[in-house]
Design brief:
The protein is mainly α and 609 residues long. The chain has helices at residues 5-24, 26-29, 33-38, 45-56, 59-72, 87-100, 107-115, 122-155, 158-161, 174-224, 253-262, 267-284, 290-296, 301-332, 351-359, 364-400, 406-430, 434-445, 450-458, 464-484, 489-492, 494-510, 517-527, 534-543, 553-579, 582-602. Helix 10 (174-224) crosses helix 16 (364-400).
């Protein structure tokens, strides 16, 4: 084990500090439901943005990105569009404002403002979004849990721990054991301190992340000055044709095997399907997770939009400085890193911890470990908070006890948190690896979410029954497909899943009358969406001739296009920097400055509550 006393001290101090944060903020969290779940809607947008960026800088996702970067080089910048990462641009341009104008506490509560609290399908639509939210939160918690265990396993060899324990752990579950230990810290400060605790802990963690990422980037650049980087032709080119065109056979045969397993060889087809799915997912808006909760926690719609835009600025350059740095170091030292799993196969998800353990010096190692452990805890705590919100707000308060005492509500929050964590960890025991779980979440489960959540924003006739049928058809389809397909196959079957869900939406919608016009007008006037809202707009103008409908569709789509290119520049800039590709670096920087100026004029200056 390479950890020095200094490294261990830094990690321990961080763990103690987040426990103290949760403890000292517990009274503030207990003041009200809004204080616990949304921080009282008093947290500044830049704090929420740093917190959200920290949550997205998760340890499992970073391990996945490093594996992609090693294998696919600069072409790897496109693969995270599976999420899709550019949904943050849609959120910043218009969806964050629309969501925050609702003044809801959760996505399920938001549905009441859109479809009303009574009428055909309202109870079912409420129930289906709660079920979806809890399932997706559990999936993300299991996803983070798996990555954390793999990471810690590199730094704390089991043979040093086993003699101190009164029981034995099978080799395949050592990572899970480590995951449980560090999960307990995240659970404590999240369950006790609520949203205020989560945001403050995330901001502290972000400072560690910046220092650690810069340190790794510098080490990689210094290392490259003395060690040649052997990569196939096309690895340093972000552009691509129909075929991937990377051949590792004479350099690193294991990378060819990974490309075959990933199924990305027909990269043009993969990109086309990914873009199609990504645009639809982005139009659907927020999934019911920590991103939605942070947006609902903003002071007002303008701050919600600024927060969403700020996330890309503070996340991508820092994260990809580390990703490319680790990938470069991993390629130059591939043969000396412990990268095999229990079956003797190369596991590229082990590159991140292996490189850190091999290259990072004492002191900086403690900072990097703290940043990545904090990254896990931030993602885990944000997701846990979202799951608690649905259980407490949309199940307990709605159906069991609408007016509990503050102390009793606090205990219900604690119990809900412990229940969610237990189930999420159990799911983690049955998932094969980070990538398999990720593919199921983003391509399977979210694929079933898309159709219903597009229509709810943009089509007035869509009703609660249509939402329920569409969500039910999509979720059932996703669960069935999870038994039939694996990996990238989910992506190629997405259109089928989308059509199944869309059919459910249309059948449900036309089997029931439209939503009450009073509810629709109230929603339309407060949220001010664009789309197919003709009859509702006419009624709104009849009731209030001074009402100003939203005519910003063309400007919003222009800003989405500009913002997506700018976000891609933010991603590739640090990669060019690490590789010493100065001409490309300055070209990307110049383009980014021009796009930033345009967005200042067409988006930032036009924001309104």
């Amino acid at each position: 084990m390479k950890l020095s006393i200094l490294d261990v001290s830094i990690v321990v101090c961080y763990l103690i500090s987040i426990i103290l944060i949760g403890w000292f903020l517990r009274k503030k969290a207990r003041q009200s439901k809004e204080n616990y779940l949304l921080g009282g809607k008093t947290i500044p947008w830049y704090m929420l943005g740093l917190s959200n960026a920290s949550d997205m800088f998760d340890i499992s996702g970073t391990m996945w990105l490093v594996a992609l970067c090693m294998t696919y080089g600069l072409k790897s910048i496109w693969i995270p569009w599976l999420w899709p990462v550019f949904n943050q641009v849609f959120n910043a341009v218009y969806l964050s404002k629309w969501l925050r104008r609702s003044n809801a506490t959760t996505g399920a509560e938001w549905l009441a403002s859109r479809f009303g609290s009574t009428g055909p399908g309202t109870k079912s639509s409420h129930a289906i979004i709660v079920v979806f939210a809890i399932i997706s939160c559990l999936g993300f918690m299991a996803y983070g849990f798996i990555g954390l265990g793999k990471f810690v396993e590199i730094f704390v060899p089991w043979q040093l721990v086993q003699p101190w324990l009164p029981f034995t752990v099978p080799a395949q579950y050592v990572g899970h054991f480590y995951g449980i230990i560090f999960t307990l810290f995240a659970v404590f400060y999240t369950v006790i301190g609520g949203m205020h605790s989560i945001v403050l802990g995330d901001v502290i963690k972000y400072v560690f992340m910046v220092i650690g990422c810069i340190g790794i980037g510098v080490i990689a650049m210094q290392h490259l000055a003395h060690h040649p980087l052997l990569v196939p032709e096309g690895w340093k080119d972000p552009f691509f044709g129909w075929n991937l065109g990377l051949d590792w056979q004479t350099i690193l045969p294991a990378a060819n095997k990974k490309i075959a397993e990933d199924g990305f060889s027909l990269f043009g087809l993969f990109f086309t399907m990914m873009l199609f799915k990504g645009v639809l997912n982005s139009l659907a808006g927020f999934a019911p997770n920590y991103d939605m909760q942070k947006t609902l926690s903003a002071k007002n719609p303008v701050e919600a939009a600024k927060m969403a835009g700020f996330v890309s600025v503070v996340l991508f350059p820092v994260r990809y400085l580390m990703v490319m740095g680790v990938a470069v170091l991993g390629l130059t030292a591939f043969n000396v890193l412990p990268l095999t799993d229990g079956s003797g196969n190369v596991d590229f998800e082990r590159v991140l911890p292996g490189v850190i353990n091999h290259f990072v010096p004492a002191g900086l190692l403690g900072i990097v470990l703290t940043a990545l452990l904090g990254a896990f805890m931030g993602t885990f705590s944000g997701t846990l908070n979202a799951a608690q919100a649905y259980i407490v707000n949309d199940i307990y308060l709605k159906y069991i006890n609408p007016a509990p005492a503050s102390k009793k509500l606090a205990y219900v929050n604690y119990l809900a948190g412990l229940l969610v964590v237990t189930i999420g960890v159990l799911i983690g025991f049955f998932a094969r690896d980070v990538n398999s779980l990720l593919q199921w979440i983003v391509s399977g489960l979210w694929g079933g979410y898309t159709a219903a959540n597009i229509l709810k924003w943009y089509w007035w006739r869509f009703n609660a029954k249509g939402f329920y049928y569409g969500m039910a058809a999509g979720i059932c389809g996703a669960l069935v497909m999870s038994r039939l397909f694996t990996g990238v196959e989910y992506l190629y079957w997405f259109p089928v899943l989308f059509l199944i869900s869309l059919a459910g939406c249309l059948i449900g919608t036309y089997s029931a009358p439209p939503t009450d016009m009073h509810t629709l007008v109230k929603f339309y006037c407060s949220v001010r969406p664009w789309g197919w809202w003709g009859p509702v707009k006419e009624q709104a103008l009849e009731d209030n001739p001074s009402f100003r409908p939203n005519r910003e569709f063309k400007r919003d789509m222009f800003n989405v296009a500009i913002g997506t290119v700018a976000q891609t520049c933010l991603t590739i800039l640090p990669m060019y920097l690490v590789l010493g590709m100065n001409m490309e670096l300055f070209a990307a920087l110049a383009l980014l400055l021009v796009l930033g100026f345009i967005l200042k004029k067409t988006w930032w200056d036009k924001l309104e509550n």
